[in-house]
Write a structure and sequence with these properties.
Layout lengths: L9 H9 L7 H11 L4 E4 L6 H13 L10 E4 L3 H14 L7 E4 L6 H9 L3 E4 L1 H10 L9 E5 L1 H6 L3 H9 L6 E6 L4 H10 L4 E4 L10 E7 L5 H11 L5 E4 L3 H13 L4 E4 L5 H12 L5 E4 L14 E4 L8 H6 L9 E7 L4 H11 L5 E4 L33 E3 L30
Parallel strand pairs: 1-6, 1-7, 2-4, 2-5, 3-4, 5-6, 8-13, 8-14, 9-11, 9-12, 10-11, 12-13
Antiparallel strand pairs: 14-15
Helix pairs in contact: 2-3, 3-4
Amino acid sequence: MQFDTLGLRAELLRAVGEQGYTEATPVQAKAIPVVMAGNDVMASAQTGTGKTAAFTLPLLHKLGSQQGERKLRALILTPTRELAAQVHQNLRDYGRHLSVRSAEIYGGVNINPQITKLKRGVDVLIATPGRLMDHMERGTVDLRNIDTLILDEADRMLDMGFRPAIDRIVRSLPKQRQTLLFSATFSKEITTLAHQFLKNPVRIETAAPNSTVEAIAQKAITVDQAKKRELLSWMIGSENWQQVLVFTRTKHGANRLAKQLEGDGLTSAAIHGNKSQGARTKALTEFKKNKIRVLVATDVAARGLDIDHLPHVVNFEIPNVPEDYVHRIGRTGRAGREGVAVSLVCGAEHGLFEDIRKLVKVPIPTEVINGYEPTEPLSRDAGKTNQRGGGGQKRGGGGGGQRRSASGNGNNRGGRSSNERGRGRGRGQSSRRAA
């Protein structure tokens, strides 16, 4: 469906066209008219299919008709600071021809510049729950005129322990409002949240819940934990991977693996919740510019990275929460582009991997690499609570030889991030589709 058939304001169509987009994605085509009609919405779509534009475009259409006194009318809650920044950028890109003022607030940075922006007056606020609570306690934000609330990646906010903050924030808002809930996955907790905060919502789904994008080629490799890093270095070098996003479960594991990969001659950096926002931004920028070959991240990055044409994602450690796998591998294969997602599975992670397979319901071929044959016994239950992972213990590029196929089915999903206050995610689209 073309954007010019959705009834959007001319200023928005102009901005969308300037971004190189003409065709709406399925979630955009379904959600935009429903949101513009004033309905509450509970929407789910695969990662990388354009959920951001599905709510920012109709929001800007609405705000463009409410010119006058500058009041905070719309609140967008996101789980992470990277996602807040990405949503804010999309909002500015699409609203460039409208006099709509927006601001982003999240933790990890000085609060005073945020207070100054809020005092000047904004129409839209993009916030992480923790930092918004800080402003509420200081009395530096006025939520009395909010008529649109958007919960973006609500499942991740619940995973990160933000439910109490969300409850308090929503209680502070006017009861008469439009509420939109967007997520890549639905769960029983999300459905409960929707029933509590939304009124007769229109439910929009463009793919089966918790499904993965077909453009992503998924596979698993069984290998002992102690040899994972050595195998990873060999794969990157032998297959000439130039841009690889690698996921670990812990911050310490991310730091250690990045350091070890550097020792193997691969330019690497780690991003996680203990890194300053400046360090995280710098690492991501250098990764996008191919100055860094390997970016090692905890799950805080699974919802906050928008990287054009990212070709490879590696699950160095299998996540404890199966749903997160979708968000990890969703950093590649965005907007129909092809991508590869590889999961390195040790014996203790067998149970976690099987849970992922059951959830995503698609076959994932499993391989064994000559020279890296696993010796660890398979465990159904090991690793399901607080399993820690590390990098491999050996240095050097390793010897790996030829692949040989093993079992045939599988699936994966990502891990639980620490309870961090504010980080963010991104969204991507092809040259014809809006983010």
